[in-house]
Design a protein that fits this description.
alpha/beta, 7-stranded beta/alpha barrel, 4 domains, six-stranded parallel β-sheet, five-stranded antiparallel β-sheet, 31 helices, 21 strands
Length: 827
């Protein structure tokens, strides 16, 4: 029996990125070709680790591994909340991995909880620390169906008060950097003050667990694991993930000379190291896990199991106000300490101090308002705040009503209910605005800092109607002293006005999004803020020759507070004006028919200006909007919709030229000559469009014109056209996924052959395919006894061929751990 144990911990985390007025992640151009950074990192890391490929020496896939089943991990709760909605299959694999690890590790799951939205705990008020821990634990229990044994601290930033609260809330252990240990001594009762041994500077032995006594009188303690610093650096910065064998060698070296008793080599890094920071890093991880599972010289474990079997024999003093990512303690999140990412010459991070001071001031003002208003509306405001996670983790009118019933000081009227939810949401935002990434990077104009300022702005919007202080004005006083390194923004107030305010969505701006989308005939569900926020009451088409216009009235409902408003709008589309919209408020119901009657003369003249004059007479608080005033997703959606219309009109006008191109293709095929250079772009466009068309199944029958697809693919191959545009790649990926889903539900011979034919066609066209989802589905079907037992011999043979075409080692040789029941002879 070996006494060498190994554990890898991955800290999987992204800051909350949602627009706080919409609860929706907006388009981020810097994440291209993906919609946003969550999407990009999910494809590069979070997803691949659910099905990491194990290859043989020839490069065939012999097995897929869910790495999360073998490693310790924590996921940021806000990231899991996003994953659950955006990628439910990946989310389910993460939850399942913890369940499977409980079987593997004697009831101890791999997952750890995390302080909720990654705030630097030593810099937080005690009451905010308590809520962060309670929210983190409640979220964990709801998702994983068990109580958390360990908890990850943001940036491993630690102080004694935080450890005390964690232990008080039932947490058994956490993980720190070896540089955060100050001194150690034996736990035996005879130890005295003189027995402390200095281990500062990373000298502590990280292969043992340690105990921190918090209150010897009540025997309260928490246990600490310190990760192996050199090995963690090798993973994060030294490219050790290039080779599983090299990684294994470094793990062996970390055990050093044999020591008495069991030892745990443990590594803790950002989980994004495995696939995002280091491409294909998940493959090295899978190789390590598979290798150690099949050998006995080092045993895989997790922290909770190791702690149960081998309790600490030594006490440790931790270095308070320290972290794993700042050599100066926690100064990176409040001062110009010298820590940065880019080390850009001439830049500084002096902006961090006034940003911290400003948000601390705002937090204090919000707390005052919360206590004053909460004392009027709630039995116990702070108890209600701790319980508010039940609302925002499962947002619905029903959950909000249940929350209000539990915590209201008395029967609340409609206005009081809205006010209660406003102060609760302002408190959520007051914690979100301290998300650590806001200070981590090099300039206040970065997207991470702009994001936390959006949370601050949202908190201000919610609390200002009930506050006694001018909150935004007060915050600007601090931000104007936070000087940006980018002269375009000047200071934090410039960042606030340029990058934060444009994301604000009040009822009028929400209405403008709805009206301009309706004018452009874009379906509401494609513009991200519908149908949850805006509901039509009435609408009238005012279109005349030379002018496309609509007039209407809507109801706008706040997503998180339920506050309801009505707005009227008039929107225009005219060649010289483009798209524009005016939105106003009206005390009484809008008489649309009467207004249209008043507009008859202006409509005859096709004059938007005159129409607006009449509109303005009926309303107040008028605001005007254009395309540039829309959030990126809606703007992008409208532009793409209009572009499709223009494209179709151009295509319709080119029917005859397209026929000429097709005739010329036949001529070239017979002649056996290449495409003339001056026509190559025209042919590429023609073939591209035909491929997209044939990869779009018939809407009514759901069938694919395989004959037409074959013909176009053959022509593309003969003309040697390389087709790898992003739209075609996405269409091909979706097409493959749909065909694989069809195959799973109806495993007929033709469906399998069609898949193989498509893969062959793509290769002949030099089309680069994203096979990740397709391979995952094949592997799951390959291991599904219910699926495989219905395959006949001929079907099974064709299915194996599909597997080989997808890169798997199947047919003739067994894929490790898999077989077809009833068809063993074919493996």
């Amino acid at each position: 029996m070996t006494d060498k144990y190994f554990c890898i911990h991955g800290h999987f985390y992204q800051p909350p990125r949602e627009n706080p007025w919409l609860e929706f992640v907006e388009y981020q151009a810097s994440a291209q070709p993906y919609h946003d950074w969550n999407e990009r990192i999910t494809r590069e890391c979070y997803g691949p680790n659910t099905r990491a490929r194990l290859h043989d020496q020839e490069g065939h896939i012999k097995k897929l591994l869910n790495n999360y089943e073998y490693m310790s991990f924590n996921f940021g709760p806000t990231l899991l909340s996003w994953l659950e909605k955006a990628h439910p299959w990946i989310y389910d694999q993460i939850i399942f991995a913890d369940l499977a690890s409980r079987d593997r590790y004697q009831g101890h799951g791999n997952a750890l909880a995390q302080v909720y939205n990654h705030i630097i705990m030593p810099l937080a008020r005690r009451r905010d620390k308590l809520t962060q821990i309670r929210w983190g634990l409640a979220d964990f229990e709801q998702r994983f169906g068990r109580q958390a044994e360990g908890m990850w601290l943001a940036e491993t930033a630690v102080d004694m008060e935080t450890l005390e609260i964690m232990a008080q809330e039932g947490i058994k252990f956490t993980i720190l950097s070896p540089t955060q240990a100050q001194s150690v001594r034996p736990l035996s009762g005879n130890s005295g003050e003189n027995d402390w041994q200095d281990v500062s500077g990373g000298q502590i032995d990280p292969t043992l667990p340690y105990r921190v006594w918090l209150d010897k009188g009540s025997h309260r303690f928490i246990d600490i694991f310190f990760y192996d610093g050199p090995l963690a650096r090798a993973v994060a910065y030294e490219k050790v993930l290039e080779s599983g064998e090299n990684f294994l060698s470094r793990i062996g070296q970390a055990f050093g000379e044999h020591k008495d008793g069991p030892r745990l080599v443990n590594v803790a890094t950002d989980g994004e190291s495995y696939g995002h920071h280091f491409k294909f890093g998940e493959l090295a991880l899978a190789w390590i896990f598979d290798h150690l599972e099949h050998t006995d010289h080092i045993r895989l474990t997790n922290y909770a199991l190791f702690l149960e079997r081998f309790s600490p024999q030594n006490e440790v003093k931790v270095l308070e106000n320290s972290s794993w990512s700042c050599a100066h303690g926690v100064e990176r999140w409040r001062a110009d300490c010298g820590c940065s990412v880019g080390n850009t010459p001439g830049w500084n991070q002096a902006w961090r101090a006034p940003l911290r001071e400003g948000l601390d001031w705002l937090n204090n003002e919000l707390r005052t308002t919360f206590e004053e208003q909460g004392g009027r509306l709630l039995k116990d405001p702070w108890k209600a705040r701790d319980d508010y996670i039940t609302v925002f983790s499962n947002p619905s009118d029903r959950e909000r009503e249940r929350f209000l019933k539990r915590h209201a000081a008395h029967g609340l009227g409609a206005t009081e209910k809205v006010e209660t939810l406003q102060i609760m949401e302002s408190q959520r935002m007051s914690l979100y605005m301290f998300t650590s990434c806001g200070w981590f990077f090099d300039d206040i104009s970065g997207i991470e800092t702009a994001q936390i300022l959006k949370y601050a702005a949202r908190a201000i919007d919610l609390a200002q109607p009930l506050a006694k202080t001018a909150l935004e004005e007060g915050l600007m006083g601090f931000l104007s002293n936070a000087m940006s390194n980018d002269p375009e923004y000047r200071d934090g107030s410039g960042v606030y006005h340029r990058l934060v305010k444009p994301s604000r969505i009040d009822p009028s701006r929400a209405t403008a999004h709805y009206a301009l989308a309706a004018l452009a005939n874009v379906p509401p569900n494609e513009t991200c803020i519908f149908p949850e926020m805006v509901s039509p009451i009435q609408q009238q088409d005012l279109g005349v020759e030379g002018l496309n216009a609509i007039l209407g009235e809507v109801q706008v409902k706040e997503k998180t507070t339920g506050q309801v408003s009505t707005r009227a709008y008039v929107a225009f589309r005219q060649e010289k004006r483009g798209l524009s919209c005016s939105v106003g408020e009206k005390d009484a119901r809008l008489d649309l028919k009467q207004m249209v009657k008043e507009l008859e003369q202006e409509l005859a003249a096709a004059s938007p200006e005159k129409i607006e004059e009449t509109f303005f007479r009926h309303l107040h608080q008028i605001k005007r909007y254009e395309l540039r005033d829309l959030i990126p997703d809606t703007r992008k959606c409208l532009i793409e919709g209009l572009a499709c219309t223009v494209h179709q009109q151009i295509r319709d006008s080119l029917v005859e030229p397209y026929k000429l191109l097709q005739e010329f293709i036949l001529f070239l095929e017979k002649a056996g000559d290449p495409v003339p250079e001056n026509l190559e772009k025209d042919f590429r466009l023609l073939i591209y469009e035909q491929l997209v068309k044939f990869m779009t199944p018939d809407q009514e029958e759901g069938t694919v014109d395989w004959a037409g697809l074959h013909q176009v693919a053959e022509r593309a191959g003969q003309l040697d056209l390389k087709l790898n545009g992003p739209e075609l790649k996405k269409k091909a990926r979706d097409f493959l996924r749909n065909q694989m889903t069809h195959l799973a539900s109806s495993p007929d011979q033709n469906a399998i052959k069609d898949m193989i034919d498509f893969l062959n066609m793509a290769e002949s066209m030099h089309l680069e395919l994203d096979l990740w989802e397709c391979q995952n589905t094949f592997y799951d079907l390959y291991n599904d006894a219910e699926f495989t037992k219905v395959l006949g011999l001929e079907q099974a043979s064709t299915f194996y061929e599909l597997g080989r075409r997808l890169g798997f080692l199947v047919g003739g040789k067994k894929a490790e751990g898999t077989k077809f029941k009833g068809n063993e002879d074919n493996l």
